[in-house]
Amino acid sequence: MKTLSLAEINSLRKTAGETFLDSCTLDRVVTSGNSYGEIIQSWVSDSEIQCGLEMTGGIEKVSGEVIVVERDAVIRLPLNTLIDIRDRITLTKKYGITVSGIQFEIISLPKIGASAMRLDLKKVEV
């Protein structure tokens, strides 16, 4: 297998960035406690970034008599994106068109490639 040069890797990253046709916000998890000692999670939107979101229509896994939807979408993000597995992602633009109310939880660890990272997502009802 051929080893890629730094110039080739940079070219791949530039090309990948040009294919990020969507925009999203990373919604950072914030934890606090209530008066009963329960941990409460909420999310605060970070700045909008470019991304590439592919709606997969749900990948189903049959487990006995139960069908479990494992993922609803896959997102590609720039390699330098800092992710906490507890964060959420809100789609803000699809092909440049503003959308609202489409939020996902991250259900996989980042898969790091030469040009981008990929995450499996599951849609959250907002």
Structure overview:
The structure is a single chain. With 126 residues, this protein is mainly beta. It contains 1 helix and 7 strands; from the N terminus they run αβββββββ. Strand 6 (111-112) and strand 7 form a beta hairpin. The chain is globular and about 55 Å long. It starts with 5 loop residues before the first helix and ends with a strand.
In short:
With 126 residues, the chain is mainly beta. Helices cover 10% and strands 60% of the residues.
Number of strands: 7
Contiguous helical run count: 1
Structural class based on helices, strands and sheet pairing = mainly beta
Percent of sequence in beta strands: over 45%
Note the run of SSEs as H and E.
HEEEEEEE
* Residue runs with pLDDT of under 50 for 5 or more positions: none
Task: State the main characteristics.
mainly beta; 126 residues; 6-stranded antiparallel β-barrel
Topology summary:
Layout (H helix, E strand, L loop, with lengths): L5 H13 L3 E12 L5 E25 L2 E12 L10 E7 L2 E10 L4 E2 L4 E8 L2
Antiparallel strand pairs: 1-2, 1-4, 2-3, 3-7, 4-5, 5-7, 6-7
